[in-house]
Structure formats: C-alpha cells, structure tokens
Amino acid sequence: MRLLVRLFVPALVSFLVGVGVAAYVSQSLVVAGFLLLVAAAFLLAAVRRKKSARFLLFGVCVLAAAFGMLRFMLWADAPNDPSMQSALGNKVVLRGIVSDEPDVREKSTQITFTTNELVNGETRKQVQGKVLLIVDRYPEYHYGDVIEIRGQLKIPESFNESDGRVFDYPNYLKAKGIAYQIFRPHVTILEHDQGNFIKTKLFSAKHAFLDRLSRALSEPENALAGGVLLGGKRSLGEEWTNRFRETGIVHIVVLSGYNMTIIAEWLGAAFLFLGFYGSLGVSAIGIILFALMTGAGATVVRAAIMALLVLLARLTGKTATMGRALLVAGVAMVLQNPSILAFDPSFQLSFLAALGLVFIAPILRARILTFRKHVLVEEVVISTIATQIVVLPLLLYQTGILSTVALFANLLVLPLIPVTMLFSFMTGLFAFFGSAVAFLPALPTNALLAWILAVGEYGASLPFAAVHVPPIPGWLVFLTYAVLALFTHRSYRPTFPAPLSRVP
Question: Which of 244, 250, 249 is CA-nearest to residue 460?
Fold first, then answer.
C-alpha cells in the first residue's frame, strides 16, 4: 500500500508532462512508442530484481508519460464531421443553436454556435460541430436562440501578435470544443429560449442584475463592478483593460479562476468570526454563487473546483492531502479535455494559482514573520506573493508584459476585492427595489471601485510600470517550473499549520 502511495503523485505528474510534451512535439507517436519500450524494460527489471523500487518508480512514471502523450494524440486527431470538413472554404447554410452566452466586445460579438443541420437547397443533412461566429454587435443574440447562418466556413488560423508572438488560435478554440469559424455571416433567428432551462434562467438573472447595477453606478465604476463580480473584463473597454494589464491587476476582472482562488481564501479569513464551519460555508457559497451567476460553463466549473479545494486545504491545514486532491482534480480535467493543459490560459492560471496557495504559501509563511499577529494582513501578503511567484513565468510567456508594480498594486487592491464584491452585489440587489434604496450601498461601492480604478490608472502611468520582454521559448518556461518544483519539494514541510486553523 505504501508503495502505491509513493507511486501515485509521480505517476500523475508524469501523465501531465506527457500531455504537455505531446502538445508541442510533432513526432509524438514515435516518442510515445519509445517511452512504452523504455517503461517495459524498467518494469521488467523491477520484477526480476529484489531491490526494485527505483526501477518500478521510473517505469511507472515513463509509462504514465507515454499514456499522457497517447491521450493527447487521440484527442487532437479525433475526426471532425465529414460533411463539415467537405464544406470548408465554401458558402454554407447551417442551422443550430447559440450554445453559450455571446461574448459582446467593443465592435463585434463572438457567438459559440452548435450546428446540427447543413442545408443544401431542398436537402438537409444532420451534422455536428461548434462554429465561432463573428457578427455585428447589433442586433443582439442570446443563449438558446435557434438561428440559421449563411457564410463561408473556415478553419481558424494562428496569427502573429504585435510583439512577434504567435498565438495558436486553432488550439485555443479546440480547447473550448470549437473547430470552425465564420466571419460576418447572415444570421436569421428562427426561435428563442431553446437552450438548457437552468442555464437560460441563470443568464437571465445575470443580465437583470447587471441592468439594475448599471442604474445605480456610473461608468467606469459600473463596468468594473460587473467585471469583479462576473468576470467581464471587456466591459471595461480596451483602454482600462490595458491599464489593468500593465499594473498587473487585470486578473480581478478575468474569468480565469485566478481571482476566484484568492478570494476563496480571503473570504474564509474575513468571516472567521462565524467560526470554522461558518467561514468555510460562506466561502463555499460565494464560489458556488459566482459559478452559477456566470452560467456554470466548463471554464468556471474547473476554476470553482480548484478554488474549493484550496479553500479546504487552507482552512483544515491538511495541505499535503489537499495538494494530492488538487492534482487528482487537475488530471481528471486534463483527461477529459487534454487541450486545456497547453492551450487554455484560464485552466493554467487557476491550476497554478491553486498550487501556489497550497504549496508556496506555507513556505513563505514560515519565513515571513512580520505580520504573524495580524492573520488577515498576513493572508493578503502571503497569498499575493505566492500566486505572483507561480503565475509570473506563464504570464511572461503568454503576454510578454512584466509589470514592475504588480506586487504593490495587488497589495493595494486585492484586500478590498471581497468587500468590493459584497457591496457591489448589495448595490445591484437593492437596485431591484429602486434607485433610492440602492443609494446607500452605492456610496461605499463607488468609493471602493474608484480606489481600484485609481490604482490601475496611476500604476500604469508610472515610468517603466510595464516592461515588454521578447518572446520566451516554451522550454525555458518548463525549466523554470521544474526548478520551482524542485525548490518547493525541498523546502515544503507538510506539518506547517494553515493560518486559519490556528485562529480560535
């Protein structure tokens, strides 16, 4: 039994490594076959030798890595609908449903369209596939609309960003299950409200809430409130989004789970006066409500699971056990959709932030004693530093922006996020009873939002607030995380108590 426990974590990590390697290595099948032979050799040696623990460990890890590569290849090479493939490059008529909430941007709207019928004259053929539609902002479309579209069907293409980085757009969309794209199609709405009943009601409640909130708050405070509560960074507009990105606080309005993971922990600290189970309950309810209000999509559900696991780890003090649970949850998600490991920034940030809070935070807490008498302040500082350390290499690889003021900006902003969310929610809720009723909670809400906006604006205006670094090779990022993992393994002590568990 002890041997199985020792093999468990290395095998799961090796599986993730295999998936990651397969995402970037062209000859994955050859490499996977070679790894299977190596694994067989080591496992055979483990059976024949008496002192076989090392051979067994190495063999199991290599075997898990090979399975990871094979799983990604099966996912990546899965055939698309033949009828859809044969229609590529041609004008098509498709019928289907708007299967997710439309992504409304400044000059356009992006719609996830699940097609079920290809129309060709009088003939109709049943097809399956998800298509990303780029349409005008008006007229508006909604989740559950049954529509007919006419346009040229294309495969998404990678593109070069302004700093020379190549954005792998096809794989980014594949991680969301989208295989095709149509620009500016002619759209005809056939029916309304044909989506999932629960999701329809959730989206309706969300839009009603945002509408009431907009009546109580002015811009850009209203846009920021919606972003902080529901992850709508594009409602801020490009200018404010760039300011937040350069200041290093854009994650508070990005539906990545990065902010959800941090907020989960701080809600537990803020509601300690309710006792252990009370603070745990408030934090869990907050995460679940957030997930439900945003429509409970796959991305949000993954982030919520990560946040709940981190919350349990930090509140119970069983970080070693919960660390393994976090790893199991991550592997289960990757097993279901291998593309998210390499091509879904939301999953990557959520997973890394969760790992940072579970493993890096205890190491920092044992060494940073300045705030030991102030639990909530200590949580803010330690959590911020831990997550910044873990996500920085990935952010540099993805964006090329090194924010020199990010740490200080986060220390000024993140402690206020839970209370800002609370007052923003109260303002929107009270607005259902009239603007006069919402006036009182709107006062502190405006003050908090104005402070966050001021930090973002002032931080971005500082000289060298954001340094643009040249494109970083993927192998260097992998090496950086390998070194960080080695340091964490040597420094981590699972006996460290969680800070919240030492508070009566």
Answer: 244
